[in-house]
Amino acid sequence: MDAGVGFYIVANALISPEARQTTLRCKSFLDWLSVLFLSMKACVPLLTLGLSRMIVVKGTDYQEHYSEYGVHWNFFFTLAVVKVLSTLFCCIFSGRCNSWILSIIICAGYQWCLYCGLEKYIINGWDGRGTRKGLLDANREGIFSSFGYIALYFAGVQLGQFLFRTRNTLFDWLKCLQGLTGFCIGCWLLLRVCRHVIGPISRRLVNLPYIIWIVALTTQELAILLAAELIISLLVSSQNQAKTKSSHKKSKSPNTDTAFTVSKLCILDAINYNGLLFFLICNLLTGAVNYAVKTLYTQTMQAIMILVVYMFLSCTPIVILRYFNIALKFW
Prior knowledge:
It is a single chain. This protein is an all-alpha fold and 331 residues long. 73% of the residues lie in helices and 0% in strands. The chain has 13 helices and no strands. Helix 1 (2-14) crosses helix 10 (208-244) and helix 6 (99-124) packs antiparallel against helix 8. The longest helix is centred in the last third of the chain and has 37 residues, at 208-244. The two termini are 27 Å apart. Its main location: membrane.
């Protein structure tokens, strides 16, 4: 789950309007208000889900660890805060600096605050004994870690802008793969340095090592998936060329300058179509499993069966909705 929440932030950033460069330029104060209003409107479902989760968890006495987000806070509130503040930053710095610079500035500032005492406060509270008096102190992990998630979000936006560049040939995508691989290696090397200088990875703090770790994992997964897609495309292209050639001609190797199209996998495409709904369904199913089963004492075969049923129940409604082109996003 530590990697999962970071992946979700980056996944949202990869396909965000900022990554696709379709955001409105804020040229006046009215433009600011309009963009912020739309952003806050988009956060209403997230706030509703966050409040609902808090009420259900408190009402059912469901197991929770305050050290993750705090007493009342949860990840849905974090998503809402990231959405609004990232929009605000985009309005302020629109056309002035790119997303990488924003990410580095926010990350460096937040890490400096952690170094100057914020880390001790988040871990130990105001009195140094971990007590949670007051709304801020009770939810200090969730509130302050949001700044780390914002830095991670803008890193994802810049990565998305790189991926959304126009590429029409296989050679272009090979260059993209080369760039992702090189950047991934650089992130892993930088992570080793940061863990030695700053400290261990902490999802609770969302510190600099955590942010670099998530970026490294994301680029690694993207590079692996792109490499697999390229290999499949080469094989399919070779087969198609062999079929279209006449029997007396030898089949030639696929041309790297030919147009390249990315195939869509059924479940993956369905999840992309209703990402937040899939995330919510998985959360509910995870809670149901934890509530009904003593997971620490589950036998291997029982665990496998639970996972199979879990995957079926989480993927089936998403695939059905995609089949009928239904996107449950009304905001």
